[in-house]
């Protein structure tokens, strides 16, 4: 008989970037609080920390029934390949974190308090993103249910609006066991 997967315990929720500030009603303030949770913890050195602390800027956000968020960032060398184009892995990271942050306006204490875990993250690369480019990342929650959510992301050039990347992120909500 297969061994049952070990559950995460609720103490993990105190880490930066784990829960959304459901006490904030304004969608932009709620997403900004999520970004700030990384900035306010100097100990955070996770893979996503540099992006969240130093690069992403939130421009706008809307609440249900149409949940959206728009971010900007400059593509710096640390996000690029040796060809000085934004690396595909860096693009996936940006889409992952922006689409996750876009979930904040739908969360409540009993519904998607935590951004969930990725099931799929599909990216379609349409053109190279050169080092130094200012990009805009637009995200929209397409569907959110009790256990699964689908969020769409687009990365465009801030200068001319050209579409660089389209992404779709499917997420699963997970539950936590109380720590004994």
From TrEMBL:
Alphabetical list of Gene3D superfamilies matching this protein: Hotdog Thioesterase
UniProt similarity note: Belongs to the thioesterase PaaI family.
Domain Thioesterase: 85-157
Molecular function terms from GO: fatty acyl-CoA hydrolase activity
InterPro entries, per database record: ACOT13, HotDog_dom_sf, Thioestr_dom
Official protein name in the record: Thioesterase domain-containing protein
Pfam families, alphabetized: 4HBT
